[in-house]
Amino acid sequence: xxxxxxKINFFHSIIFFLLASSFSIIINQFENLIIPPIIxxxxxxxxxxxxxxxxxxxxxxLLKIYNIKNSYLFYLIYLTLIFGVIIIWFFxxxxxxxxxxxxxxxxxGKEDTDFLFYKKNQFDEILYFFKGIxxxxxxxxxxxxxxxGIFKLLLxxxxxxxxxxxxxxxxxxxxxxxxxxxxxxxYYLINNFKITNFIIFFDFFSIxxxxxxxxxxxxxxxxxxxLHSFRHSISLIVVxxxxxxxxxxxxxxxxxxxxxxxxxxxxxxxxxxxxxxxQFNDAIIKIIFxxxxxxxxxxxxxxxxxEKNEK
Length: 311
Known about the structure:
mainly alpha; 80% helix; globular
């Protein structure tokens, strides 16, 4: 089953690199062509969040491991964590963003690499972080002012936070982190080398090209929806039906639809509320990233507990 996932992801990475590069260059050639944030939101709500929409099934599996029969307990804890993150964000936005970027870096690095290797060690946990941090630092490297503008829209008014960003930019620390991420990718490429390991570098260059040519929001949307989420969804589809990708895909869509729909409804209600106080595009950016943060923390915690107990 793991070999099937590797094979699918290998060809997908090649196709994604070619299409993402072509798309980025074409968009960059048309200076007046602007992809509105609402398109990014719709893609994230339909394709992006769907890769976490089977968490309720994983939650039931975790409850079974802990011998807990009340399935509603999972939903209560999961929703509490979601709304807890949102509330904490409004009171401590700078700290929340900093923690979110750290957790997201680790999550992206792990999810985009973990399927390639059977043997893992604790050192990999650090390597996952430095591999995934590429998603965070490339927009700061290529579009610093625009990325800082997004941070400001996320309620970050702590001047020390921006002084810190200026410091790491002006002292080439961002570039140093970029080089460390590059070396981690090289390590994973040559570690127990197989042709499928070239996924690592197709992904690396795809992320760099996207962030070089596109705005930070659009680059993140393309990566999140069509690389990260697609890859996670493929692993879920294969688990649901390893004998037929078609049947597994249909089953995945059926099982993912309820939570994807509820998440979309929650986002739309939030957008309606926030648009009364902020400009429409600004409200979209707020709910995209604060919303993703609120979903990411319980999602990662669930994955961690399942992995820990299954071991």
